[in-house]
Amino acid sequence: MRSYLDFEKPIADLEAKVDELKAMAAKGDAVAIGEEIAKLEAKSDQSLKGLYMALTPWQKTQVARHPQRPHFVDYCARLISEFTPMAGDRGFGEDEAVIAGFGRFEGQPVCVIGQEKGSNTETRLRHNFGMAKPEGYRKAVRLMELADRFGLPVLCFVDTAGAFPGIEAEERGQAEAIARSTEACLALGSPNVSLVIGEGGSGGAVAIATANRVLMLEHAVYSVISPEGAASILWRDAARAQDAATGMKITAQDLLRFGIIDRIISEPAGGAHRAPDEAITRAGHAMSAALGELAGLSPEQLRNQRADKFLAIGRKLM
Fold this sequence. Notes:
alpha/beta; 2-enoyl-CoA Hydratase, Chain A, domain 1; 8-stranded mixed beta sheet; 8 strands; 50% helix
């Protein structure tokens, strides 16, 4: 069953009417309503496209968090063959907020690292809503070092509200683990490509998004803090999250303009959650193109390109 966001109510009403007419037609309770159904469907599609072409930053944040939006496990199942997950950081334990392993992308051996939020109550609890603890980032470092040793490209899928803020995570060195993961990304002698598929929250995202190419889905968001968190700090009022989202420039369009990301991947009309297979296919094509751009570069060239890219952030005037 499709879930609608608050601002999608006009679309929900139109689609409910279409479903009602289709049910009537199926029962034979009405005649010659095919034309009416077609008109309503056309109106609904047009309204949906118009609505999504003019989303505010706060509305994009809601779309990025949509419960039916495809998650990392969906991208991995569709794009990566022969995927073999690896567990544990060889220091403390396993963190299922970060899923990492090796597989094949378009036949090429790759290392894959993704943040998984979960899609229902059971999986959300198991994956801790995508909020990694230090062992999750140390697992990512372990796999990146293995990938570097064997010259394998690294593909990262970013989708987290942020690193886990609990006391136990801080006690185990959360900040140091994030810093080490970011350092491992920068030190890679093999190409790495990161894709923000939903939320890119703070250092929890940067830890695996420090890549040669950073891609974002059209309605994803990427920020130093959540809008609610920024509103609580700036105005001591989380209800002003909408103002914070607008001011922080968290959309893919803003980030591309500032040179923070390299490419925006368009989503199907109505967002990735309406056509997950199509969204994942588009993402796969974009990641393949990004890897192709990096093919043939030496390890030193890859490191230099990556370092130059991130050192330039904040120096680009618009």
